[in-house]
Amino acid sequence: MRVARFDQAFLGPLLAGAFAFATQALAAESVFTTLPLATVDTAPLLVAADMRDGVDLSGEWNWSIDPYRSGIAGFHGEAPNRTEQRWLDIDVRKTLAQDNRELFEFDLDHDRKVKLPGSWLAASPEMRHYQGLVWYRRHFDSPAGRKGRYFLRFGASNYATVVFVNGQPVGRHEGGFTPFAFDVTRLLRDGDNQITIGVDSAATAATVPPPVTDWENYGGVTRDVKLVHTSDTYVDSAWVRLTREGKIAVDAHLDGPAAANQPVQLKVAGLPFDLKGRTDAQGNWRATAAAPRALMRWTPENPKLYDVTLAAGDDTWRDRVGFRTIERKGADILLNGKPVFLRGISMHEEEIAANPARVITPDNARALLGEIKNGLHGNFVRLSHYPHSEVMTRTADEMGLLVWSEVPVYWMVAWSNPSTLATARNMLAENILRDRNRASVVIWSVANETPVSDARNAFLRTLIGDVRRLDPSRLVSAALLVERDKAAAVPTMTMADPLADDLDIVSINTYNGWYTPDRLADLPRSVWKLPADKPLIFSEFGADAKAGFHSPDGMQKFSEEFQAEFYRKTLEMADRVPTLRGISPWILKDFRSPRRQNPDFQMGWNRKGLISETGQRKQAFSVLAEYFARKAGEPSK
Ligand code: GCB
């Protein structure tokens, strides 16, 4: 309903009951299908929740595996009996000691501890390849002098999540990379409170993404959990931006008993800007006003952020917002009206570490983005293949990097399954609603390397339509594949994907010379048959290299020399494509991928990084850094 308030019907009836199919690996009827599902239509959005007061629930949690999912169904598929219900609000040790008719084959309060957020994959060697259900438990003290509203807000939990507070069911969520929240005001009690979370990482043919990808499926609670506190009526969502007409626009929605006809006031610190208004009967406020002349526009070179406040009754919503415009004109991408070339690289959400757990702290985000901004002289990052932590997009805002943001509609999803489409649409909406206030984000991507078919085209066109409805201020793209002319003497590629017509930017992944037998020397002569009036981004190209492995003469695959030469020749090729307006090669850092098992070079790591997992730069790093340094000095067409 929240989105619908802005955009008429959004997901509408599609969502009703749709998720049952998506969780078919789980018991047909279980808490994973029966608890209320949190979506953009049904749950609080709590936009900019990270700027709100609250209790940080990061830290030590008890955890326990449940590989046969006994906590959600008995062995004949029936509802679990009391002895299996992980969320019960009881003291297992005490109960067992007091009554020998009782039986519990779990005791979360006395089980192992792990620090959240962080994936269980890195918690112990035997969890490395565990894909299934894990239960988490922690206690916290009731906030003193409780009043107003309390929300349990999750930055992300991968993949399906069920939540209980003090033994009571709260809700569930599907999707591993976007935030969700529940109003738990009425479930809290004085003194000790208990939270139990079940997280199931198993992918099915119906999930987004499906089981086959090229990255490690980091199960668990991978981002912050916070008990957010607000007044009874609060600003649930707000979007503040600079329009292409040079105005500051705001869309806000209040939730609570005093949401209707509420006086509201938007201020931008440091600017003569003070916009007053009143919400309508649904608690919505939409307004625009001329941007002050003194407004400094956000650019990668000068990433100016303003403290923005929206006062509404007892609540004050805060964010730090950069003001800029982004648009396409013919084959150009215009940032603040001026052509820009996107000097970028792709990235997975993995910190620089020997055993990453997907813990994106501000320091970890700065270390990664610093390699792009300062090391490579970049101005752009493709956050592939799913929404990254809000810490990452905030850090990109602060450091001055343009961002490509993506949903994990990757390779082969169930194009004809309505519940898969509903999941993808909700994920996309959660991502957009979370990050619409980030100046860094300039491109919403709806898919990566998906095979053309009528069902796939219809699926992706629905997503493109959603983007345009939720955020017409940014550009839409998807990483596409091209057709190769097998008879041609030189590598000849044609953009034959009909989806290119629907996108603002044509983005292409190309691996000629790595996955094809082309000689690197032939790449610069490649022929690209592409739309002449749209910007092109080479959204991927890359080659594996094991840091420290050299083959100066033979130029063997997996050597640093091969990777460096692959970059030289591919960049030479790219420079000859007249519509090229950006690149985001594959990839900044080596990343975990269980499909990569060459024992000499990979051992579970995709080695296409320009830096190793611990941050060692390979030769190709300086090839790209020099290319970007040169590009930065050139006019952008
Ligand atoms: C691709 C995929 C990316 C893979 C990469 C590779 O085309 O988009 O997810 O990791 O190639 O290394 O093969």
From TrEMBL:
This is Beta-glucuronidase. Residues 329-592 form the Glycoside hydrolase family 2 catalytic domain. Residues 1-27 form the signal peptide. GO terms for biological process: carbohydrate metabolic process; glucuronoside catabolic process. The lineage of its organism: Bacteria, Pseudomonadati, Pseudomonadota, Alphaproteobacteria, Sphingomonadales. It holds the Pfam family Glyco_hydro_2_C. Keywords: Glycosidase, Hydrolase, Signal. Its EC number is 3.2.1.31. Residues 231-324 form the Glycoside hydrolase family 2 immunoglobulin-like beta-sandwich domain. One of its GO terms (molecular function) is carbohydrate binding. Belongs to the glycosyl hydrolase 2 family. Residues 78-230 form the Glycosyl hydrolases family 2 sugar binding domain.
